[in-house]
Amino acid sequence: MTSTSTPGTVPFAGRDVARVGYGAMQLTHGGHVAREDAVNVLRLAADAGANHIDTAYFYGEGACNALIREALAPYPDELVIATKVGADNTSDGGLTPAQRPEELRRQVEANLASLGVDRLDVVYLRRLDFEPGIIATGEQKVDLDDQLAELAALRAAGKIRAIALSNVDAGRLRRAAPVGVEAVQNAYNLLDRATEPVLDACREHGVAWVPYIPLGSAFPGYRKVTEDGTVRAVARDLGATASQVGLAWLLAHYERTLLIPGTANPAHLAENMAAAGVRLDPETTARLAALAPPTAPSEG
User: Fold this and answer.
1) Residue 79 resides in a domain
2) Is 227 inside any structural domain?
């Protein structure tokens, strides 16, 4: 079930990317990060070896993509930028579903323009069937096959290199597999393993696993990995931080796991990047896994 080592890279969208990348959402979420600080931390991440950056046009209505372009363009050949489609910004700063095929195409074009590229490396289809996040209703409840057909057409046209999925169950992943799925991005961490069946399906099909909320959250209904007593005890024994232990467990749990922790703090960035060097022996790995046995969600 687990490994005691974490190889340095994973094949992803035609490149070998470091297993710890960078999630850019926090750079525009809440509007609390100054532009120069955001640009600086993106460059620090790239300099530290994070050649996998995760973003979306709906992170600040293109603002996050603009920061990435300012910080990192012209993009090095080894860099993979993954983005998402499936939602639109609202005038009050929130999000609204945008699941229809024509909306997905428009979002792909918006990502291309804001990042300043001719082809997107990875495009996640963010399904809105269940929480966390907004839920699709009415005409926004779109059949998966129709969405995949649109993204496959964009891939055939050269506008997308690889198709990925976010917020899906195992049944939908298996249904989409014949189209070609590069990765799945679901909520998952050491203390919240409800989507473990999806991870099992990723193993089955050799799909990369990119967990979001990898250390839990302060939002209601979530636990923070860094506040767990066992995690803290393991961290003390290893001379690591609690967040590094939580990230290292994810890396050890599946060899094709890619992490995208986000931060605007250079010190936290360095801490996250160093998690790839934390080794967990089998006994410690099993001790941590016992904190939250996996549970199966309903399949749709």
Assistant:
1) yes
2) no
- Give domain status of residue 49, yes or no: yes
- Strand-pairing partners, residue 80, are 52
Residue among 16, 24, 145 nearest 83 (CA): 24
Nearest 10 degrees: Cα torsion 47, 50, 56, 58? -50
Q: Among all residues, which ones are annotated catalytic?
A: 59
Per-block mean pLDDT, blocks of 10 residues, the chain (300 long):
54 97 91 92 97 97 97 98 97 94 98 98 97 95 98 98 98 97 97 95 97 86 92 98 98 96 96 96 94 63
Provide the β-strand partners of residue 122: 82, 162
pTM for this model (two decimals): 0.93
Please give the pLDDT value at position 245.
Answer: 98
Q: Are 208 and 12 in contact (CB under 8 A)?
A: yes
Domain with residue 25: its CATH number is 3.20.20.100
CA 108-110-111 angle, to 5 degrees, is 65
Cα–Cα distance between 27 and 87 in angstroms, integer? 18
Q: Is residue 181 part of a domain?
A: yes
Q: How many structural domains are present in the chain?
A: 1
Q: What backbone phi and psi angles, to 5 degrees, belong to 250?
A: -60, -45
End-to-end CA distance of the chain: 26
Structural domain harbouring 197: 11-218+254-279
- Position of tokens 């080592």? 5
